[in-house]
Specification:
heterodimer, A: 203 residues, mainly alpha, 10 helices, 0% strand, elongated, B: 230 residues, alpha+beta, four-stranded antiparallel beta sheet, three-stranded antiparallel beta sheet
């Protein structure tokens, strides 16, 4: 685990240029992020890459699929796809740019397979911008707040109870003093309205 | 019908189960998107489980744990896939019984294969024969040749001592691909999609990424390069 991990700028450049078919995902641009992030920092081995980034990648995926099973599968797919081609020296910035490109492509493949359309995407060209959202779940919370803030009170309340506070429909109904049937209908209507709000918000 | 499936999808999200996809129209897709946005904001929900992090670490260690992973543990690469394709297709041609094995070998990787980054499936005609498309001497190491066999056209390449062949038709709308000036990728003249010689999608400007190019089984017999075609 020592040999290939020598820090060598020329190696980074060569690898970035030589393996376009693996580095490029369907980003629409086809451009590997350039070397502006190359610095003195690089990872010691694949384990260092994994430990430093697994939570970021998972959170990135979780925010876009909303469930643990899919987020775990997609995180697995990202590292299996990315670590092979990354088996050379590369700066932290290079590694993260590559993980981001891979994640974008993996997520796109997931939605293509399941829904035949892109339900969610990973936007942003720089890993630091996109993945810095990840360690704290602030971005997801901010987004949810913006959606909820635009809804009528009862719509907001039912969605808060069910999505954010993990209430069952029965618990939510009791909390709001309505029947279970009414709570279901209310939730359906509220989600439809939330979708309309969400589509109007900028990505 | 699909309204019920949408409700079930949302309910699965809320209960932390793996949701089941369904054919969603635009409005339903927007609801799925909103449900994900709200569910992802649940406090404490976004962190990976320790069990998962440990399990994935173990799995990666078996794949990448040594300085030079053996070919057997490396994730499927283009060359390995092609190698399998050639052997299995030859078996199919000889015995007629290798077809199932081929199908399994080439589609069994599941998740990654139909993403733009993964290798494409291999074309397996119901009744095919081997067609000579070039003399071995015409296909030196590192070269690429276009072929047109009537029913199919494509490109065959020799790299790293192995042969590989892909379809020469864009998976978007069927325009004929052309080899770029440096013989490193296949460009679509219609919508600027580009594929690697291994079939992987390199880039595109379409709303949905086109599938990778199908592989075509290829072999070398008695100084002739042959592809398996209908």
């Amino acid at each position: 685990m020592t040999g290939p991990w020598v820090r060598d700028r020329h190696e980074v450049v060569r690898v970035a240029g030589r393996e376009p078919s693996r580095i490029r995902g369907d980003t629409g641009t086809g451009e590997m992020p350039r070397l502006h992030l190359v610095g003195p920092d690089s990872y010691a081995d694949w384990e260092a890459i994994y430990r430093d980034n697994v939570e970021r990648v998972y959170r990135l995926m979780f925010r876009r699929v909303g469930n643990r099973s899919d987020a775990e599968d997609l995180t697995t797919e990202v590292f299996l796809a990315a670590l092979g081609p990354l088996r050379t020296s590369a700066s932290v910035g290079e590694v993260r740019a590559y993980l981001l490109t891979t994640a974008r492509s993996v997520l796109a493949g997931h939605w293509r397979r399941t829904f035949g359309q892109q339900i969610t995407t990973i936007d942003g060209d720089r890993f630091e911008d996109v993945l810095s959202e990840a360690p704290v779940n602030d971005a997801a919370a901010v987004r949810a707040d913006r959606i909820l803030a635009a809804l009528p009170d009862r719509y907001r309340r039912i969605l808060q109870l069910r999505f954010l506070e993990a209430c069952t429909v029965k618990e939510a109904a009791e909390e709001m003093g309505i029947t279970v049937g009414n709570a279901k209908v209310l939730q359906h209507r509220a989600l439809r309205e939330a979708a309309a709000v969400n589509e109007r918000l900028a990505p | 019908m699909n309204t019920r499936r949408l409700r079930r999808y949302v309910e699965d999200l809320l209960r932390g189960r793996r949701p089941r996809p369904f054919p969603a129209d635009e409005r339903q897709a927007a609801e799925v998107r909103a449900a994900i946005a709200l569910r992802a904001a649940r406090p404490g929900g976004g962190a990976p489980h320790e069990d998962f992090v440990a399990a994935l670490h173990r799995r990666l260690a078996t794949e990448f744990g040594t300085a030079a992973p053996s070919p057997a543990t490396r994730p499927p690469t283009r060359r390995r896939v092609v190698q399998v394709a050639s052997v299995a297709a030859a078996a199919a041609a000889v015995g007629g019984a290798g077809g199932a094995a081929l199908d399994h070998a080439l589609t069994g990787t599941g998740a990654g294969t139909d993403a733009g980054t993964g290798p494409g499936v291999t074309l397996r005609p119901n009744s095919g024969t081997w067609h000579t498309v070039a003399a071995s001497t015409d296909l030196a190491e590192g070269t690429v040749l276009a072929f047109d066999a009537g029913t199919l056209n494509g490109f065959v390449e020799r790299t790293g001592g192995r042969l590989s062949a892909v379809s020469g038709v864009c998976t978007h709308l069927g325009c004929r691909l052309r080899l770029n000036a440096t013989a490193t990728e296949l460009d679509c003249p219609c919508h600027n999609a580009a594929f690697a010689l291994g079939g992987e999608l390199l880039r595109h400007q379409l709303p949905t990424a086109p599938a990778p190019l199908p592989h075509i089984a290829v072999r070398e017999v008695d100084g002739a390069v042959q592809v398996f075609l209908p």
